[in-house]
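Reply to dn_fold:

You asked what the input looked like. This is it:
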Amino acid sequence: ANLKIGGVSLFERAASSLGYVEGPRLFSIGNVSSASLPSYAGWIKINDLDAETRGPLAGLAAAIAYLKQHDENVEYLLSVAVDTPFFPQDFSLKALEIFNNDDKADIVVASYEGQMYPTNALWRFGAIADLPEKLTQSAKIGIKGLFKTSNMRELALVGRGNYNPCQNVNNIGDVLASGRCKTFQPTKKTCN
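and this is what came back:
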């Protein structure tokens, strides 16, 4: 989350992709102490739900539990992986168009060239509101498993240039491979 590209951290880049989203902004931090991580203005750090399942699904369930406890007027939940710094700002608007034209859709998932990216999705809150309870009852649920029990729609994204807007960036090698890095400064761990 703190790797920088052009002087901007992955977290800040992923956060900027939320563009048009209103409401609480939650940052899933796994099971790490929130005191050990930097704070970001306007963001609430939440720990994963205490269940056997870990990873993105535990973070999604924690966000749902938090929202159920603090905000009764949630209609949609947008999830964006922090390691997708090139995610398009207009995804939420395009996904909402799909929901507006298809009242049976529960999830709109980002895809690029036929590959789905399940952590980058807009979820109809009512369709996943019971996820925290399901996770505490069974560890056999996976994020892709939700698609099998929901009405999932795919939103195909178009890359700008030759890069994948859903590409995961976890280290400087990923940035270099993305073709988005012109110069790398190893002492600063930044890419411009």
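The beta strands are 4-5, 8-9, 26-28, 44-46, 76-79, 107-112, 115-124, 152-156, 184-185, 190-191.
Hope that clears it up.
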